[in-house]
Amino acid sequence: MADQAKWQALMKWTMKHTDGTTPTEATPISEDKRRFLEMVMNEGVIDENERVKDILRILEGEDPRLVFAKEDGTIADEDNSPSPEELAQYKDTLLDELLTRIDQIDNAQNFVKMGGLRIMINVIKKYEQASSRALAAEVCSVVVQNNPYCQDAAVETDLVLQKNFFIRSAAAFITNEDVDLCESAVEGLAEFAMIGPDFMAACKKSEFDLIAKCNERIKQIDALEDEDKEFAQETKTRVEYLKKVLTV
Protein backbone atom coordinates (compact mmCIF):
# COMPACT_ATOMS: atom_id res chain seq x y z
CA MET A 1 0.00 0.00 0.00
CA ALA A 2 1.40 3.38 -0.97
CA ASP A 3 0.14 5.20 2.13
CA GLN A 4 1.26 3.61 5.40
CA ALA A 5 -1.08 5.91 7.30
CA LYS A 6 -4.07 4.07 5.83
CA TRP A 7 -2.88 0.78 7.32
CA GLN A 8 -2.48 2.54 10.66
CA ALA A 9 -5.98 3.97 10.37
CA LEU A 10 -7.36 0.50 9.69
CA MET A 11 -5.54 -0.90 12.70
CA LYS A 12 -6.82 1.88 14.95
CA TRP A 13 -10.36 1.35 13.65
CA THR A 14 -10.12 -2.38 14.41
CA MET A 15 -8.67 -1.86 17.89
CA LYS A 16 -11.33 0.67 18.68
CA HIS A 17 -14.04 -1.92 18.05
CA THR A 18 -12.38 -4.75 19.95
CA ASP A 19 -9.28 -5.19 22.09
CA GLY A 20 -9.46 -8.98 21.85
CA THR A 21 -9.99 -9.53 25.57
CA THR A 22 -13.75 -9.37 25.87
CA PRO A 23 -16.65 -10.64 23.77
CA THR A 24 -17.99 -8.15 21.30
CA GLU A 25 -21.49 -7.68 20.09
CA ALA A 26 -21.89 -8.10 16.34
CA THR A 27 -23.67 -5.15 14.78
CA PRO A 28 -24.42 -4.32 11.15
CA ILE A 29 -21.64 -2.30 9.54
CA SER A 30 -22.56 1.15 8.33
CA GLU A 31 -22.20 2.11 4.68
CA ASP A 32 -19.43 4.61 5.47
CA LYS A 33 -17.44 1.99 7.39
CA ARG A 34 -17.93 -0.56 4.63
CA ARG A 35 -16.65 1.86 1.97
CA PHE A 36 -13.67 2.72 4.16
CA LEU A 37 -12.73 -0.94 4.62
CA GLU A 38 -13.15 -1.71 0.91
CA MET A 39 -10.97 1.24 -0.05
CA VAL A 40 -8.18 0.28 2.35
CA MET A 41 -8.20 -3.41 1.46
CA ASN A 42 -8.34 -2.81 -2.30
CA GLU A 43 -5.33 -0.52 -2.12
CA GLY A 44 -3.49 -3.20 -0.18
CA VAL A 45 -3.83 -5.74 -3.01
CA ILE A 46 -1.37 -5.66 -5.91
CA ASP A 47 -2.55 -6.87 -9.29
CA GLU A 48 0.39 -9.10 -10.26
CA ASN A 49 -0.26 -8.88 -14.00
CA GLU A 50 -0.60 -5.11 -13.99
CA ARG A 51 2.58 -4.80 -11.95
CA VAL A 52 4.52 -6.97 -14.41
CA LYS A 53 3.13 -4.94 -17.35
CA ASP A 54 4.32 -1.74 -15.69
CA ILE A 55 7.77 -3.20 -15.09
CA LEU A 56 8.07 -4.30 -18.73
CA ARG A 57 7.04 -0.85 -19.95
CA ILE A 58 9.83 0.72 -17.90
CA LEU A 59 12.40 -1.83 -19.07
CA GLU A 60 11.40 -0.96 -22.65
CA GLY A 61 12.29 2.64 -21.98
CA GLU A 62 9.18 4.41 -20.68
CA ASP A 63 9.64 6.98 -17.94
CA PRO A 64 8.66 5.39 -14.58
CA ARG A 65 6.94 8.62 -13.59
CA LEU A 66 4.63 8.33 -16.61
CA VAL A 67 4.02 4.62 -16.07
CA PHE A 68 2.93 5.24 -12.49
CA ALA A 69 1.06 8.49 -13.16
CA LYS A 70 -2.24 8.82 -11.34
CA GLU A 71 -5.54 8.19 -13.11
CA ASP A 72 -6.11 11.93 -13.48
CA GLY A 73 -2.76 12.27 -15.29
CA THR A 74 -0.91 13.78 -12.34
CA ILE A 75 2.80 12.86 -12.47
CA ALA A 76 4.66 12.46 -9.19
CA ASP A 77 7.99 14.34 -8.98
CA GLU A 78 7.55 15.65 -12.52
CA ASP A 79 10.35 18.19 -12.05
CA ASN A 80 12.69 15.74 -10.31
CA SER A 81 14.30 13.70 -13.08
CA PRO A 82 16.38 10.69 -11.92
CA SER A 83 20.02 10.48 -12.96
CA PRO A 84 21.07 7.74 -15.44
CA GLU A 85 22.75 5.90 -12.57
CA GLU A 86 19.63 6.05 -10.41
CA LEU A 87 17.46 4.85 -13.29
CA ALA A 88 19.82 1.93 -14.05
CA GLN A 89 19.80 0.88 -10.40
CA TYR A 90 16.00 1.14 -10.30
CA LYS A 91 15.70 -1.10 -13.37
CA ASP A 92 17.90 -3.69 -11.66
CA THR A 93 15.49 -3.61 -8.74
CA LEU A 94 12.59 -4.21 -11.13
CA LEU A 95 14.38 -7.13 -12.81
CA ASP A 96 15.01 -8.64 -9.40
CA GLU A 97 11.32 -8.20 -8.59
CA LEU A 98 10.39 -10.03 -11.80
CA LEU A 99 12.29 -13.07 -10.56
CA THR A 100 9.96 -13.27 -7.57
CA ARG A 101 6.82 -12.79 -9.67
CA ILE A 102 7.43 -15.23 -12.53
CA ASP A 103 8.51 -18.30 -10.56
CA GLN A 104 4.97 -19.73 -10.70
CA ILE A 105 3.86 -21.42 -13.92
CA ASP A 106 0.77 -19.24 -14.47
CA ASN A 107 2.70 -16.03 -13.86
CA ALA A 108 5.47 -17.18 -16.21
CA GLN A 109 2.94 -17.85 -18.96
CA ASN A 110 1.32 -14.45 -18.48
CA PHE A 111 4.79 -12.89 -18.62
CA VAL A 112 5.39 -14.57 -21.99
CA LYS A 113 2.00 -13.42 -23.33
CA MET A 114 2.99 -9.85 -22.45
CA GLY A 115 6.09 -10.13 -24.64
CA GLY A 116 8.39 -10.45 -21.65
CA LEU A 117 10.93 -12.76 -23.34
CA ARG A 118 11.41 -10.34 -26.21
CA ILE A 119 11.99 -7.50 -23.78
CA MET A 120 14.50 -9.56 -21.76
CA ILE A 121 16.45 -10.38 -24.93
CA ASN A 122 16.52 -6.66 -25.70
CA VAL A 123 17.90 -5.95 -22.20
CA ILE A 124 20.63 -8.57 -22.67
CA LYS A 125 21.60 -7.10 -26.04
CA LYS A 126 21.38 -3.37 -25.43
CA TYR A 127 21.70 -2.49 -21.74
CA GLU A 128 25.13 -1.16 -20.76
CA GLN A 129 24.85 -2.16 -17.11
CA ALA A 130 26.27 -5.66 -16.66
CA SER A 131 24.03 -6.47 -13.70
CA SER A 132 20.92 -5.75 -15.78
CA ARG A 133 22.04 -8.14 -18.50
CA ALA A 134 22.79 -10.88 -15.97
CA LEU A 135 19.42 -10.47 -14.26
CA ALA A 136 17.57 -10.51 -17.59
CA ALA A 137 19.33 -13.75 -18.52
CA GLU A 138 18.27 -15.27 -15.21
CA VAL A 139 14.66 -14.16 -15.78
CA CYS A 140 14.63 -15.89 -19.19
CA SER A 141 15.94 -19.10 -17.68
CA VAL A 142 13.44 -19.14 -14.82
CA VAL A 143 10.51 -18.47 -17.16
CA VAL A 144 11.20 -21.39 -19.50
CA GLN A 145 12.28 -23.96 -16.91
CA ASN A 146 9.84 -26.89 -16.68
CA ASN A 147 7.25 -24.91 -18.62
CA PRO A 148 6.46 -26.33 -22.11
CA TYR A 149 4.25 -23.36 -23.04
CA CYS A 150 7.05 -20.90 -22.30
CA GLN A 151 9.62 -23.11 -24.03
CA ASP A 152 7.52 -23.02 -27.20
CA ALA A 153 7.31 -19.26 -26.84
CA ALA A 154 11.09 -19.14 -26.53
CA VAL A 155 11.32 -20.75 -29.96
CA GLU A 156 8.87 -18.24 -31.42
CA THR A 157 10.75 -15.27 -29.94
CA ASP A 158 14.08 -16.53 -31.33
CA LEU A 159 15.50 -17.16 -27.86
CA VAL A 160 16.47 -20.63 -29.08
CA LEU A 161 18.11 -19.24 -32.21
CA GLN A 162 19.95 -16.73 -30.06
CA LYS A 163 20.95 -19.21 -27.37
CA ASN A 164 24.63 -18.85 -28.27
CA PHE A 165 24.39 -15.12 -27.65
CA PHE A 166 22.52 -15.77 -24.40
CA ILE A 167 25.15 -18.25 -23.16
CA ARG A 168 28.06 -16.02 -24.15
CA SER A 169 26.52 -13.05 -22.34
CA ALA A 170 25.91 -15.00 -19.13
CA ALA A 171 29.24 -16.86 -19.24
CA ALA A 172 31.14 -13.59 -19.06
CA PHE A 173 29.86 -13.07 -15.52
CA ILE A 174 30.99 -16.40 -14.02
CA THR A 175 34.41 -15.02 -13.10
CA ASN A 176 33.18 -11.50 -12.39
CA GLU A 177 34.25 -10.28 -8.96
CA ASP A 178 30.70 -9.07 -8.30
CA VAL A 179 29.07 -11.90 -6.33
CA ASP A 180 25.53 -11.03 -7.40
CA LEU A 181 26.48 -11.00 -11.08
CA CYS A 182 28.21 -14.36 -10.77
CA GLU A 183 25.29 -15.97 -8.95
CA SER A 184 22.73 -14.64 -11.43
CA ALA A 185 24.84 -15.96 -14.31
CA VAL A 186 25.44 -19.47 -12.97
CA GLU A 187 21.82 -19.90 -11.87
CA GLY A 188 20.59 -18.70 -15.24
CA LEU A 189 22.95 -20.99 -17.15
CA ALA A 190 22.08 -24.03 -15.02
CA GLU A 191 18.36 -23.52 -15.59
CA PHE A 192 18.91 -22.71 -19.27
CA ALA A 193 20.91 -25.92 -19.83
CA MET A 194 18.14 -28.04 -18.34
CA ILE A 195 15.43 -26.78 -20.69
CA GLY A 196 16.18 -29.51 -23.20
CA PRO A 197 18.87 -31.39 -25.15
CA ASP A 198 19.51 -28.56 -27.63
CA PHE A 199 20.13 -26.12 -24.81
CA MET A 200 22.40 -28.54 -22.95
CA ALA A 201 24.41 -29.17 -26.10
CA ALA A 202 24.80 -25.44 -26.66
CA CYS A 203 26.04 -24.90 -23.09
CA LYS A 204 28.63 -27.65 -23.57
CA LYS A 205 30.18 -26.08 -26.67
CA SER A 206 33.93 -25.66 -26.36
CA GLU A 207 33.74 -22.06 -27.54
CA PHE A 208 32.05 -21.08 -24.26
CA ASP A 209 34.28 -23.25 -22.03
CA LEU A 210 31.82 -22.98 -19.15
CA ILE A 211 33.41 -25.72 -17.04
CA ALA A 212 36.82 -24.02 -17.28
CA LYS A 213 35.23 -20.74 -16.20
CA CYS A 214 33.58 -22.53 -13.27
CA ASN A 215 36.93 -24.01 -12.24
CA GLU A 216 38.54 -20.59 -12.45
CA ARG A 217 35.84 -19.11 -10.23
CA ILE A 218 36.24 -21.91 -7.68
CA LYS A 219 40.01 -21.28 -7.58
CA GLN A 220 39.35 -17.59 -6.98
CA ILE A 221 37.13 -18.45 -4.03
CA ASP A 222 39.55 -21.02 -2.60
CA ALA A 223 42.29 -18.40 -2.66
CA LEU A 224 40.31 -16.10 -0.39
CA GLU A 225 40.93 -15.97 3.34
CA ASP A 226 38.91 -15.80 6.55
CA GLU A 227 35.55 -14.03 6.31
CA ASP A 228 35.84 -13.37 2.58
CA LYS A 229 36.22 -17.08 1.92
CA GLU A 230 33.35 -17.96 4.24
CA PHE A 231 31.11 -15.38 2.60
CA ALA A 232 31.88 -16.81 -0.85
CA GLN A 233 30.87 -20.38 -0.04
CA GLU A 234 27.30 -19.95 -1.29
CA THR A 235 28.63 -18.67 -4.60
CA LYS A 236 31.00 -21.65 -4.76
CA THR A 237 28.09 -24.03 -4.16
CA ARG A 238 26.14 -22.53 -7.05
CA VAL A 239 29.14 -22.68 -9.37
CA GLU A 240 29.72 -26.33 -8.45
CA TYR A 241 26.06 -27.03 -9.19
CA LEU A 242 26.45 -25.58 -12.68
CA LYS A 243 29.49 -27.82 -13.21
CA LYS A 244 27.45 -30.82 -12.11
CA VAL A 245 24.64 -29.95 -14.53
CA LEU A 246 27.10 -29.65 -17.41
CA THR A 247 28.85 -32.95 -16.70
CA VAL A 248 25.73 -35.12 -16.55
UniProtKB/TrEMBL annotation:
UniProt entry keywords in alphabetical sequence: ATP-binding, Hydrolase, Nucleotide-binding, Protease
GO biological process per UniProt: proteolysis
Amino-acid biosynthesis in keyword set: no
Organism: Phytophthora nicotianae (Potato buckeye rot agent)
A molecular function (GO) term: ATP binding
The protein's name in its UniProt record: ATP-dependent Clp protease ATP-binding subunit ClpX
UniProt key word Disulfide bond: no
PANTHER family in the record: HSP70-BINDING PROTEIN 1, PROTEIN FOLDING REGULATOR
Domain of life where this protein originates: Eukaryota
GO cellular component: endoplasmic reticulum
